[in-house]
Design goal:
The chain is α/β, with parallel strands linked by helices. The chain has helices at 7-17, 91-97, 136-146, 148-151, 156-169, 183-194, 221-238, 240-246, 250-259, 268-275, 279-282, 285-293, 298-313, 324-334, 343-350, 359-362, 400-410, 428-431, 433-445, and strands at residues 27-28, 37-44, 55-63, 72-76, 102-106, 176-181, 201-205, 387-392, 416-421, 452-453. It folds into 2 domains: 7-215 and 373-453, Rossmann fold, CATH 3.40.50; 218-313, no CATH class. A 10-stranded mixed β-sheet has the order 1-2-3-5-4-6-7-8-9-10, sandwiched between helices. It starts with 6 loop residues before the first helix and ends in a 6-residue tail after the last strand. 47% of the residues are buried.
Length: 459
């Protein structure tokens, strides 16, 4: 591992790329969450050279190390639309993975306690809290379309500049790591694409596919989910006990359930797609199919309750609700390679699927001011610090094959290690915690581990 930049280098980088070297002072947080302290940093609405105007507020929460910190770890949440609160339930796990480091968790622009797209409707004290509710949907979307110039500055590139500014302004010469998950990996890579950063190591959890890879873009998310779901069914067929329990190929039983046209069969592909995200519930899919095939409903009730429990395990904070407007703007602008896809064509594509996602349908008519892609779209960083990529082989969101392709494209930028987490779905920090701690801990300590991690494989 390379060492942290010396203080004079940190100062030089900060002056070149992001303003003063010292960030805003951390103070006790209003919500007193654990031992965290909080700060706010200003950032321009647009980072384009020579552009002046609105200044945004970026919220950062710090979980300090016990005693003098060895350095800092920036935790970059997924989404788009998720705030840093999505990572709060995993702070102790992250502390074990990055021992002795301060953990800094920013809220992306447009999320959490940072400046919002619809400040009035997404305020904590509004009728829906930070989520939109009732009439807030119409007034928020009307406001965004009434001021499209402002809305179009909530881009990946501007958010990447935000992240760069935060890293540089808070850098004190000690080692810096960046952990990013899902959409956060796209954002982090964009930040490195813009230019150099004093980062010792980068951890990418559930790496997004290449931005130009049509096979994996968001408009094809149902196809990705269906591919992984069929792999799960095939695993049951290959397991003598599971196959004997069903008495026929799992896909055949599933098709019979769908053809039954019972109330429980309606919307089943969407539900089954959701089950793929949670290993314990994914393992119940064969039992769910058997129960439905026999006309039962007890297993369905259990998996639905399990989904609620899984959601509750991710925490409930004031700023937990994702920003749906931000999801629509970024997803529609940069991660949809079929913007002219019709509803009829999408229906024809998804009708044969056994597993699906609602996301492609939400992209059809976003009703929001999208922005044009800039020159960074489809490109790659010229240089990366040592990078660890963790991807599950049964990831229904960022497909493992897409991660393999992306890693191959990044090889020229530095030393990239891809760890294949056997049987894991999306978000390794959550779904394969033992693998995560083992691999990240070894990465930070400079130790090598096998690139195929099977010790925490789920069904």
């Amino acid at each position: 591992m390379t060492k942290g930049f010396p203080p004079f280098a940190a100062l030089l980088l900060a002056l070149l790329y992001g303003g003063p070297a010292q960030g805003a002072r951390f103070q006790p947080c209003e919500d007193a969450l654990g031992d965290s302290v909080c700060a706010r940093q200003t950032a321009p609405l647009s980072h384009a050279p020579g552009v002046t105007g609105e200044q945004l507020s970026l919220f950062v929460r710090k979980f300090p190390a016990a005693g003098p910190g060895k350095g800092t770890v920036w935790l970059v949440a997924g989404g788009p639309g998720e705030s840093g609160a999505s990572l709060y339930p995993f702070i102790e796990r992250l502390r074990r993975s990055f021992p002795g480091f301060d953990l800094l968790v920013p809220d992306h622009r447009g999320t959490g306690f940072s400046s919002r797209l619809c400040p009035a409707e997404e305020a904590a004290g509004s009728p829906g809290g930070m989520a939109l509710a009732g009439a807030e949907w119409a007034s928020c979307f009307d406001g965004l379309n009434g001021q499209p110039g402002r809305a179009r500055q909530f881009t990946i590139t501007n958010a990447a500049h935000d992240l760069r500014q935060l890293i540089l302004r808070h850098h004190d010469g000690k080692p810096v790591y960046v952990y990013a998950v899902s959409y956060g990996t796209q954002l982090a890579l964009r930040a490195f694409q813009i230019g150099a950063l004093p980062v010792t190591g980068l951890v990418l959890d559930s790496l997004v596919p290449l931005e130009t890879a049509g096979k994996w873009d968001l408009s094809r998310r149902s196809l990705v989910v269906d591919d992984v779901g069929r792999q799960v069914l095939a695993r049951c067929d290959a397991d003598p006990r599971c196959a004997a329990m069903l008495g026929e190929p799992a896909a055949n039983l599933y098709r019979r359930v769908l053809a039954s046209d019972t109330p429980q069969a309606h919307g089943l592909p969407r539900l089954m797609g959701r089950l793929l995200d949670v290993p314990a519930l994914r393992a119940r899919i064969p039992w769910l199919l058997r129960d439905l095939g026999q006309g039962g409903g007890s297993e369905m009730a259990q998996v639905k309750a399990g989904l609620l429990d899984a959601g509750a395990a991710l925490g409930d904070y004031v700023q937990s609700s994702p920003s749906i407007p931000l999801v629509g703007i970024i997803s529609g602008s940069e991660n949809n390679l079929r913007p002219h896809l019709s509803a009829a064509a999408l229906k024809a594509e998804e009708d044969p699927l056994l597993f699906s996602s609602p996301l492609p349908g939400l992209l059809l008519q976003p009703g929001l001011p999208l922005y044009p892609r800039d020159g960074y779209f489809g490109g790659h960083p010229s240089r990366l610090p040592p990078t660890l990529v963790l991807n599950g082989t049964l990831d229904p969101k960022t497909h493992y094959e897409g991660a393999v392709e992306h890693v191959a494209a990044l090889r020229g930028a530095g030393r990239i290690t891809l760890v294949e987490v056997k049987g894991a779905p999306h978000f390794i920090l959550w779904t394969a915690p033992d693998c995560f701690e083992r691999q990240v801990g070894a990465f930070v300590a400079g130790r090598a581990l096998p690139r195929t991690d099977t010790a925490c494989a789920a069904y």
